[in-house]
UniProtKB/TrEMBL annotation, chain B:
It comes from Streptomyces alkaliphilus. Residues 1-12 have a biased composition (Basic residues). Residues 1-27 are annotated as: Disordered. This is DUF742 domain-containing protein. InterPro entries: DUF742 (IPR007995).
Length: 187, 120
């Protein structure tokens, strides 16, 4: 990476076992890396390892991958849990992000509500990525949008998180959405 | 819940243990995706073990805070205050991740990101 490189960050949020790490790994040039973060019971990330008892803290795994988008642009893609008890930590991660990907399993649509709330509260542009699992009831897009109360401009894409080209479609939809919100340069 | 106040951002709650027991607040706020660039001209004398290792990791090239944390086998929240102090002391330069604002440069940069994604 050259010294002049710029980083961009995208955060993938969703319920347990929805495919976050799979999507991070599919998009990443490297095998996903993982750090174990400590959180207080209030959900704040802590950097004090020695003065807090084990009882006061829980551990949360943070996965991330890295992808070169140009010689001087590197994408970092982070996977984070969507459950409310991790909200404080995820909010910290959402700061400085280009946008978010909310993952959804059609067998348990409501489990992605918290992740959507996180994006909305942070005011961060996001895309919903519906990943396909076997024996899944296929909802119509309009039904899903209605259930999630998505604004008409928020992209919703179907992906297979295991496939790089498919997983990347969610990111392309996000950046296309960002561009559509960014005004054309005035001549 | 209310948003975290400025001094609590980036998980920087009372930097202490791995940072070398130094409780001085730092001026630099970092992100896990912040890139760290080492200044090879600043001497490493007097640095503690972790700051020294972090400098050794950053000197050959550019490294993100999150990757540095993995290499140091420390949580990101512990790595950030170590890196912040090295920014304060001039050992490291930190480049925050790109966040779009609605202006011309940003549009061009977003288009470059999109091109990169389409080529994956
Ligand atoms: N069929 C199918 N399986 C998938 C897809 N994405 C993920 N999986 C599988 O779903 C399981 C869970 O995927 P993970 O990527 O570990 O999910 P996660 O969201 O990171 O899970 P946690 O971090 O534990 O919350 C794995 O067995 C994946 O192989 C997909 O798009 N299609
Ligand atoms: Mg995971």
């Amino acid at each position: 990476m050259p010294a002049g490189a710029e980083a961009v960050k995208i955060v993938v949020v969703g319920p347990f076992a929805v495919g976050k790490t799979t999507l991070v790994g599919a998009v990443s040039d490297i095998a996903p890396l993982r750090t174990e973060e400590r959180m207080t019971s209030a959900g704040a990330m802590v950097d004090v390892l020695e003065r807090l008892g084990e009882k006061d803290t829980t551990t949360v795994a943070m996965d991330f991958g890295r992808t070169a988008l140009a010689e001087d642009i590197v994408l970092y893609i982070f996977g984070a849990p969507g459950q409310p008890r991790f909200a404080h930590m995820v909010r910290t991660l959402l700061e400085g992000a280009l946008g978010g990907i909310v993952m959804l399993d059609e067998r348990r649509v409501h489990e992605s509500f918290d992740a959507i709330d996180l994006m909305e509260t942070a005011g961060l542009p996001y895309t919903v990525a519906v990943n396909h699992f076997p024996d899944t009831p296929a909802h119509r897009e309009a039904e899903l949008r209605d259930a999630l109360s998505l604004t008409p401009t928020t992209p919703l894409v179907r992906v297979d998180a295991r496939e790089r080209t498919s997983a990347t479609r969610a990111l392309i939809a996000l950046v296309t959405h960002l561009l559509s919100r960014t005004p054309e340069p005035t001549p | 819940m209310s948003p975290p106040s400025a001094h609590r951002r980036r998980g920087m709650v009372r930097p202490y243990a791995a940072a070398g027991g130094n409780l001085t607040p730092t001026r630099s706020t970092l992100d896990p995706a912040t890139l760290l660039i080492a200044d090879p001209k600043v001497p490493l004398t007097g640095l503690g073990a972790y700051p020294h290792r972090l400098m050794a990791l950053c000197l050959p090239g550019v490294l993100s805070v999150a990757e540095a944390a993995v290499r140091l086998e420390l949580p990101v929240a512990v790595t950030m205050p170590i890196a912040s102090r090295l920014v304060d002391s001039g050992h490291l330069v930190a480049r925050a991740p790109f966040v779009p604002a609605a202006d011309r440069h940003d549009r061009a940069f977003l288009e470059r990101i999109l091109d990169g994604l389409r080529k994956l």
